[in-house]
C-alpha cells in the first residue's frame, strides 16, 4: 500500500507525532522564576527537582513553582537562603525529600504544611525558630530531628503528623497548644527537664503513646494536654505542678494508675473523665478541691481515698463509677479516708428520700448531693460541716427550713435553687459571700437574715423570691450582682449599703411592690433595667455621686410622680424613664443636657408637666424636651393660653414678648398722633 501524505490516516499520524514531540520537549524543559527579593527558583520537570538559590527569605506563598506542585518530588535549597517563609512549600504533597542548608535560621507559618509525601526532615542546627503550623498535616512524616538551637515548639507545629518518635532537645522550654495533637503513631514521649510549660491540647489524640515522662521542671500542664491518649497506662504528675487542669487526661481509657505528687491544690473538672481503665489514684493531702465530673465513668475504680484537706467536691465527680464502693449512712453515700470514712457526702441514696441525718463527722457536702430530691422534707446538718456545694439542695421543693451551723464557711452557687417550699433559712456569720443563684426561685421564703460577715451577693441570688417582703443588707456588703432581686414582687422595702458603687443591670427589675428606695452617695452608676417595672415607687432621688443612668433603668415605674436628678449625672440613656405614666415633675440640678438631646428618655411620660432646671443650665432643651422652666418657677401653674401646658425659660419668654409689645405701643402712638 502506497503512503499518501494527504490521506486522513496520515494527518492523524502527523498530529500524534507532533503531540509526542511537544511532550518530549516539555518533559526536558526547565522552568524558573523569582521567589523573594533575592531568591530564584528552577524546576526540572524531567527529574521533578526544585532548586532554590540566592540570599535572604523565600517569601512567596504563591510563587510560580506552586503551579508544578503535583510534579515536584525533591527540593534542594542552596546555601545563602536564611529563611523559609510563610507557606513556602505548603501543599506540595508529592515532595518526598528536602535539603535545608546551614544558612537557614527560621521557618515561617505553614512552611511545610500538608506536605504529605515527606517522610523525614533534617533540620540544621542553624535554625532557631520554627513557626506555627510549620509541619501541620504532614501525615507521612515519620521522623524529624530538632536541633538544640530550638527553644520552643509552637502551636500546631506537628499537628496530625505521622511521627513514630520524637526527640525533644533539652533546649526546649515551651511546648505550645496542639503542638503534637493527633500524632496517633507516637508511642512514647520523653520531655526534657528544660520544659516548663505544656500547653493545652499539646498531645491530644496521641492514641499510640504508652508512656510519658513529665519532669519536675514542668510547672504547667494545660487543658486537654493528654486527652484521648488511649494507650497511656500510667502517669506521675510532678510536685512542680500546682493544678491538674480541666480535661487534662480526658478519655485516656487505658490509664491504669495516676500519682499526683504533694503540692497540687486542685483537680479540675473532667480531668480524668472516662478513664475507664483507672484502678488506682493517689490524691495527696494538699488537694483542696476536686472539680465537676473529674472521675466520672472511671468504671475500673473500686476505691479512692479523699484526704481531709479536700474542702469542695464538684457535681457528678464520681458519677458512672459503677464499681466504686461507698460508705453508707442514713439515706446517703460517703467517701473519705482511713481516719474519717465519712469526710465527704457525695450523693443521696435515691431521689425519693424524704429525710436525711448527715453523719456527725462529715465536713463536705458535695455539689448536687440532693439535687431534685423533690420529696425531701428535712435535713440535719451537723456542726462538723464546713462547706455546702453548689446545687446541693436544688429543686428540693418540699424542704421548708434548714439550719446551717456556724462552721460553714462556703455555700456554693445554686445551693438552694428552686426550693420553692423553703420559708426560713439562716446564714451563719462564718459565711462571707452569697453565690450566684443561691436562693433563686425560693418563692416561699418570707424572710432571711444576712449577717455582717457577708461582703458580696451574687447574680440572681434572690431572683423570683416573690414571698420576700423586706430585707436588710448589712453595711459589710460591697457588691450586689445583676438580677440579684429580679422579680421579688413582694418586696416593699430594701436598703442599699453605702459601700455599693453601682446598681447593676436588672438588680430590682420587676420588684413591683417596692414603694421606696434610698440610693446612697457611694453609687456612681445605675444599670440597664435596674428598676424596670417597679410600679410601687412614687419618688426617686438620684444622689450627687451618680454619673450615669442606664437604658430603661426606670421603665414602667408607673407610680413614679417625681424624680430629683443631681448635678453629677452627665449621661441618661435612651428610655431611662420610658412610660412612667404618673411622672409629672423632674428636677435637674446640673448645667448641661445629660440626655444629649435624645427625645426618648421620657417617651410615654404623658403627665410630665415640669422640667425644672437651675439658672446655670446652659442648654435650650433637656433630654429632647424644650419646654423647661427655672426651679424657682417650677410650682407656678401653666398659662391657660399654652397649648402644651409647659413653660419656657424666662429669658426666652421675654425675648419672645418684647417685639410684640413694641409693635402694639407703636400702633397706639400713631393713632394718638
Rg value: 38 Å
Shape: flat
Number of strands: 48
Strand content: 15-25%
CATH homologous superfamily of the domain at 521-637 and 645-652 - what is it? Ribonuclease Inhibitor
Structural class: mainly beta
What is the helix fraction of residues, given as a range? under 10%
Amino-to-carboxy terminus distance: 139 Å
- Biggest pleated-sheet summary: 6 strands, mixed
What are the low-pLDDT stretches, counting only 5+ consecutive residues below 50?
18-29, 636-673
Quaternary structure of the protein: single chain
CATH architecture of the domain at 521-637 and 645-652: Alpha-Beta Horseshoe
CATH class of the domain at 521-637 and 645-652: Alpha Beta
What is CATH's topology name of the domain at 521-637 and 645-652?
Leucine-rich repeat, LRR (right-handed beta-alpha superhelix)
Instruction: Write down the overall mean pLDDT.
Output: 90
Question: Biggest sheet: strands side by side, in what order?
Answer: 25-26-27-29-31-33
Number of contiguous helices: 2
Amino acid at each position: 500500500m502506497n503512503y499518501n501524505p494527504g490521506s486522513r490516516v496520515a494527518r492523524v499520524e502527523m498530529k500524534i507525532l507532533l503531540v509526542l514531540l511537544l511532550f518530549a520537549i516539555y518533559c526536558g524543559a526547565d522552568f524558573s522564576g523569582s521567589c523573594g527579593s533575592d531568591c530564584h527558583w528552577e524546576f526540572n520537570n524531567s527529574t521533578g527537582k526544585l532548586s532554590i538559590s540566592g540570599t535572604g527569605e523565600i517569601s512567596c506563598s504563591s510563587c510560580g513553582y506552586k503551579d508544578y506542585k503535583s510534579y515536584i518530588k525533591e527540593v534542594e535549597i542552596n546555601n545563602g537562603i536564611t529563611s523559609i517563609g510563610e507557606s513556602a512549600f505548603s501543599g506540595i504533597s508529592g515532595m518526598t525529600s528536602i535539603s535545608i542548608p546551614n544558612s537557614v535560621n527560621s521557618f515561617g507559618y505553614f512552611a511545610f504544611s500538608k506536605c504529605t509525601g515527606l517522610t523525614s526532615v533534617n533540620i540544621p542546627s542553624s535554625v532557631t525558630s520554627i513557626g506555627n503550623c510549620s509541619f501541620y498535616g504532614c501525615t507521612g512524616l515519620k521522623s524529624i530531628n530538632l536541633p538544640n538551637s530550638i527553644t520552643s515548639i509552637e502551636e500546631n507545629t506537628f499537628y496530625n503528623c505521622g511521627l513514630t518518635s520524637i526527640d525533644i532537645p533539652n533546649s526546649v522550654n515551651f511546648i505550645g497548644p496542639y503542638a503534637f495533637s493527633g500524632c496517633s503513631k507516637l508511642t512514647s514521649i520523653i520531655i526534657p527537664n528544660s520544659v516548663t510549660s505544656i500547653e493545652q491540647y499539646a498531645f491530644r489524640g496521641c492514641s499510640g503513646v504508652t508512656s510519658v515522662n513529665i519532669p519536675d521542671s514542668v510547672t504547667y500542664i494545660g487543658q486537654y494536654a493528654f486527652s484521648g491518649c488511649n494507650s497511656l497506662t500510667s502517669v506521675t504528675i510532678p510536685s512542680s505542678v500546682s493544678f491538674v487542669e480541666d480535661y487534662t487526661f480526658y478519655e485516656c481509657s487505658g490509664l491504669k494508675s495516676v500519682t499526683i505528687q504533694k503540692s497540687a491544690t486542685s483537680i479540675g473538672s473532667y480531668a480524668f473523665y472516662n478513664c475507664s481503665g483507672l484502678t488506682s489514684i493517689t490524691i495527696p493531702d494538699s488537694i483542696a478541691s476536686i472539680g465537676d465530673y473529674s472521675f466520672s465513668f472511671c468504671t475500673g475504680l473500686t476505691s479512692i481515698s479523699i484526704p481531709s484537706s479536700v474542702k469542695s467536691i464538684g457535681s457528678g465527680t464520681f458519677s458512672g463509677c459503677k464499681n466504686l464502693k461507698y460508705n453508707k449512712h442514713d439515706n446517703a453515700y460517703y467517701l473519705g479516708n482511713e481516719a474519717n470514712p465519712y469526710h465527704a457526702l457525695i450523693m443521696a441514696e435515691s431521689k425519693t428520700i424524704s429525710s436525711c441525718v448527715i453523719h456527725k463527722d462529715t465536713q463536705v457536702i458535695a455539689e448536687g448531693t440532693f439535687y431534685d430530691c423533690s420529696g425531701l422534707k428535712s435535713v440535719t446538718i451537723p456542726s462538723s460541716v464546713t462547706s455546702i456545694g453548689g446545687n446541693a439542695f436544688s429543686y428540693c421543693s418540699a424542704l421548708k427550713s434548714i439550719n446551717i451551723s456556724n462552721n460553714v464557711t462556703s455555700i456554693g452557687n445554686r445551693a438552694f435553687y428552686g426550693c420553692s417550699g423553703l420559708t426560713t433559712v439562716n446564714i451563719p456569720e462564718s459565711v462571707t459571700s452569697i453565690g450566684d443563684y443561691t436562693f433563686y426561685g425560693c418563692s416561699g421564703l418570707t424572710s432571711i437574715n444576712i449577717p455582717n460577715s457577708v461582703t458580696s451577693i451574687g447574680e440572681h441570688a434572690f431572683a423570683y423570691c416573690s414571698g420576700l417582703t423586706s430585707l436588710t443588707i448589712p453595711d459589710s456588703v460591697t457588691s450586689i450582682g445583676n438580677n440579684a432581686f429580679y422579680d421579688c414582687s413582694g418586696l416593699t422595702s430594701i436598703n442599699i449599703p453605702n459601700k455599693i458603687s453601682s446598681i447593676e443591670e436588672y438588680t430590682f427589675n420587676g420588684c413591683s411592690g417596692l414603694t421606696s428606695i434610698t440610693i446612697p452617695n457611694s453609687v456612681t452608676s445605675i444599670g440597664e433595667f435596674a428598676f424596670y417595672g417597679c410600679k410601687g415607687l412614687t419618688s426617686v432621688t438620684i444622689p450627687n455621686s451618680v454619673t450615669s443612668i442606664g437604658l430603661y433603668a426606670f421603665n414602667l415605674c408607673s407610680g413614679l410622680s417625681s424624680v430629683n436628678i443631681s448635678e453629677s449625672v452627665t449621661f441618661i440613656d435612651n428610655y431611662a424613664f420610658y412610660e412612667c405614666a404618673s411622672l409629672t415633675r423632674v428636677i435637674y440640678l446640673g448645667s448641661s443636657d445629660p440626655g444629649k438631646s435624645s427625645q426618648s428618655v421620657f417617651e410615654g411620660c404623658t403627665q410630665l408637666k415640669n422640667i425644672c432646671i437651675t439658672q446655670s443650665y446652659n442648654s435650650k432643651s433637656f433630654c429632647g424636651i424644650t419646654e423647661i422652666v427655672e426651679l424657682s418657677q417650677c410650682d407656678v401653674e401653666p398659662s391657660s393660653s399654652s397649648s402644651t401646658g409647659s413653660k419656657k425659660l424666662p429669658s426666652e419668654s421675654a425675648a419672645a414678648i418684647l417685639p410684640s409689645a413694641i409693635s402694639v405701643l407703636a400702633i397706639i402712638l400713631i393713632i394718638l398722633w
